[in-house]
Amino acid sequence: MEDLPELVVIENLCFTKQEAATKEAFEKRIQFISDSFFVVEEEGGLVGLVNGPVIETAFITDDLFSEIKANPASGGHQSILGLAVSPHFQKCGVASALLTHVEKEARAKNRDTITLTCKENLIRFYENFGYLSSGVSNSEHGGVIWYNMIKKL
Predict the structure, then answer these.
(1) Which residues, 6+ apart, have CB-to-CB distance to 132 below 8 Å?
(2) What is the pLDDT of residues 11-64, one digit of tens each?
(3) Which residues pair with 152 in a beta bridge?
(4) How far apart (Å, rounded) are the C-alpha atoms in residues 95 and 78?
(5) Distance separating alpha carbons of residues 126 and 133, to the nearest angstrom
(6) pTM > 0.70: yes or no
(7) SS3 sequence, the chain?
(8) What is the CATH number of the domain that holds 67?
(9) Can you tell me the distance from the alpha carbon of 32 to that of 15, in angstroms, rounded to the nearest whole number?
């Protein structure tokens, strides 16, 4: 919780106001899903974050951006609601490290998949980590077109 101000800054540097998680959303996520909310620290401060709840369905639904409940001990689908890296640290392996850590944790808890949505320009980025595109998402979050990406574990 002490990292909350820095989390909000990084989120807002990486997403539009309509897309970015709010301070209140981060507070709920830290409270309920701290076991799937990870950060990278560098040079004495936060430089990146990834978070998302474990869900019952294979794809993200918009209600997840406001309604969070605790993760089950095992099984389910690990979602990624947000992956954000401070612009100064982009292209330095921070996002890769965060994705690798999420996958390691998801495998340890016997999750079925990791699922996320991304904009079209990031499809290839996630494909490089073994995610498969499942077409346009039903999500209307932030008023943009999102694509479903999924990785079987």
Answers:
(1) 149, 150, 151
(2) 999 999 999 999 999 999 999 999 999 999 998 899 999 999 999 999 999 999
(3) 113
(4) 17
(5) 9
(6) yes
(7) CCCHHHHHHHHHHHCCCCCCCCHHHHHHHHHHCHHHEEEEEECCEEEEEEECCEECCCCCCHHHHCCCCCCCCCCCEEEECEEEECHHHCCCCHHHHHHHHHHHHHHHCCCCEEEEEECHHHHHHHHCCCCEEEEECCCCHHHCCCEEEEEEC
(8) 3.40.630.30
(9) 23
Structure tokens at 133: 């595109």
pLDDT tens-digit series, residues 53-102: 999 999 999 999 989 999 999 999 999 999 999 999 999 999 999 999 99
Quote the tokens at residue 143. 């008023």
The total number of structural domains that make up the chain = 1
Q: Which domain holds residue 40?
A: 4-152
